[in-house]
Write a structure and sequence with these properties.
Layout (H helix, E strand, L loop, with lengths): L2 H26 L5 H6 L6 H28 L5 H27 L6 H8 L6 H33 L3 H50 L1 H10 L5 H5 L4 E2 L2 E2 L2 H9 L8 H9 L3 H32 L13 H13 L3 H39 L5 H23 L6 H25 L5 H20 L8 H5 L3 H19 L5 H11 L9
Antiparallel strand pairs: 1-2
Length: 517
Amino acid sequence: MSGNSLGWIILAFVLYLLMMVVIGAIYSRKNNSTEDYFLGGRSLGGFVAALSAQASDMSGWLLMGLPGSIYALGTGQAWIAIGLFIGTVLNWIFISGRLRRYTIRANNSLTLPTYFENRFHDKKRILLFISSVTIVVFFLVYTASALAAGGKLFNSVFNVDYRLALTIGAVVILTYTFLGGFLAVCVTDFIQGTLMLVALLVVPIMAYAIVGPSNIMSNIEASGVAGGSAAFLSLFSNGGEPYKAVDIISGLAWGLGYCGMPHILVRFMAVKNEKELNKSKGVAIVWVFLSLVFACVIGIVGRAYLYPEVLSGGEEEKVFINMILKLFNQDVAIPLIGGLFLCGILAAIMSTADSQLLVSASSVAEDIVKGILKKDAKEETIFRISKITVLVIAVLAYLIALNPNSSIMGLVSNAWAGLGAAFGPTVLLSLYWKRTNFQGAVAGIVSGALTVVIWDYLPIINGQTIGAVTGLYSLAVGFAVSLICIVVVSLVTPAPTEEMCEEFDDVSQKRINFDQE
């Protein structure tokens, strides 16, 4: 890369990062309460809610992890994308509106742990504590994946040391989240979601045109893909080997995680009214469909476009970065545009990390400190603790991400499974099964989280984890275990009180106007 090209790319990055920090500073003036800081006063519009929810969901995984997997192993890796698309659609249709109504009915709950507490009338605040700790633990890993992706991006583009690159990304994310709270995060996520989508659409289309349709298959074949180009483009082949049923189930199981993701669910809770929420559904579903399809296309087209260069040894996750650098420095030579598209990858990373930091902060400050330890804490005290928590979580995630060989896909996979298995079944049944009670909710959260930890982290079969031996994604197992535990425990313990049943009926039958105009 020439010095002139690098200068334009640096300019694009500087302008983009400055804009994010300025947005944080502007919205810091609008935070007058913890509801403002954590939920934006429930004032989100439809488009902002939709793109913010999906941008905070997809992370660097969308532009690095998924294309890298397909580049390395073939189109069979798209089963994860299929599962995520199905999960997104079902989440917006069945969870979003009902959760928004129930959190307002359940004493205007600001966070997912508070919703559990109020929904199940947990006077001892056991649910509040368990769910808050679960969020902080798994979000540490999730935030580390985003920071690792940022480190790899800066390392590839500017050829700076990975640890220095990691530090730069972490500082910027921390700054605007620290300053602006929820509204700043949502507005920046809206901008970032738009930028991500443009980059996803433009780059593979331009690369495809440059390679030429007639050369795609031959270049893929020549690049040495396992099993040849036909296997590479087959949904039922994985690295040249036939896809097993367990692999397809594992890929589709990713979709189960959506109904348990606090950083996505909190967007539903914050939408202004039902009309805006309905607008969000269509926008979000279209955005996710296009994003996932073109992320897969990047992995396929990138294999042909980058040839004779072949990425390996963990470098596969940089396929999109390398495509942008080659496209806008050699073939088209508009480095400023290339820099902006590289910011699209940074956008994917930042839009997830900021949301996770904010949800972690709300779990500690609003749920643990104000909810359990110091119930009479003043607003300014909660504000201060929130910001300290953002800082602490960021530092711990930074330490986890310090290993330059960290797999973005691996870190995201573990965190997604833990949160999805712990909270997904509990959220789902709390909204749709009146018989769900406090004991069942506790059993569901604990069993789901523990199943994932045992499945993914404990080497109990000849020095290997159960997940490594079976090849089955821990989310599929954890979700099923949690669901069964909720049903069984709820049925063998006392039924919910009459008051809880009345609240459930208010929500399910829409007996109250829940719109905040």
